[in-house]
Signal transduction histidine kinase with GAF domain
Amino acid sequence: MQRVNFGRRRSILADTPAEQDQRLETLHSYDVLDTEAEADFDDIVELASKICETPVSLISLVDEKRQWFKARVGFEPQETALDQSVCSHAILDGDFTEISDMSADPRTADNPLHIGDPRVKFYAGANLVAPNGQAIGTLCVLDIKPRTLTEFQRQALQTLSRHVMMQLELRKKIRIEAALRAEMDHRVKNSFQTIASLLRMATRKVHDPDAKDVLALVERRFGAVASLHSELMGQGGQSKVQTASYLEQLNKLLAASAPDHVTISCAAEPGELQATQASALGMIVSEFVANSIKHAFPGDQAGEVSISLRRQNNAGGWLLECRDNGCGHDGTVSGADSSGLGRMLMATAAEQLHGRLTTDFNPDGALMRVCFHA
């Protein structure tokens, strides 16, 4: 395939668009100039070249002092000055421009493309029009011989130009959503930190044992929600969380609040849970750990609490096991505390999982199992 070179003569510059400031602002809002090549755009110019039977096809973006090519076939330069640009004329002339013989058109007769070797004789371009009506460039095809496109080729070029804009709009929306999500995540984390500090301050000022238990339970529940939020944002705001990383986050939270004589470990097989399931699981785990710390290791007795989440079968079944090696909970139900709120929350969480909860207590420790399906 022949590739276009340039002569040195300067051609007639296109007039500056009437709304140039807005047009340039629109172009720059896509944040596409000087980015790497992308297959989605490369495929479009390849297809345009084949449909129009031309050796050259370009996605040309007209900047203030240059035209830059997001994708190109049969053309070496990544960008050119505007005195070598036919597209800067095309964006002034409706939605579609076709110049059958560049030597016969005053806009292009002196263009270095036309006087180069080989000489470009033919140009057709469909404008890339943003939703606000501003033309930011063209999808164009060039040939080294005078010619005209068929009606089908014109329609195809215009259809492909709209597809280019769809791709640019999609990338812009994704980028904006990512920025908004990051800002939201930052603000939520700040709110979590503020609320956690208030809870700790309130707990220190309260002396009633039942009230302390309630505040501690709220703090644990809040911590589980914070861990869930962190994991969800790590997954790009999706509604599912990864089991292993979520349990790791939860383990860090629980270990930070555990006394020195109690070791906490969490392990999970790889998989995904819905956010609501992860929230319920976090409630069960945090309550079991809190009550093991409170009841199973009196007198600073050293001990371990271990949490495991593993698959039961190939049909989406999961088994959550919570164990401690303490002295037991005096025959009480795991998760029970003086207020009974822990037991109620764990039972509610198991129902949210549509799971079956079983317990086993003896002087050598406590074991709780929850079977559920993802």
Residues 151-205 form the longest helix (55 residues). The two ends are 56 Å apart (CA to CA). Residues 4-10, 330-339 have pLDDT under 50 and may be disordered. The chain is about 45% helix and 25% strand.
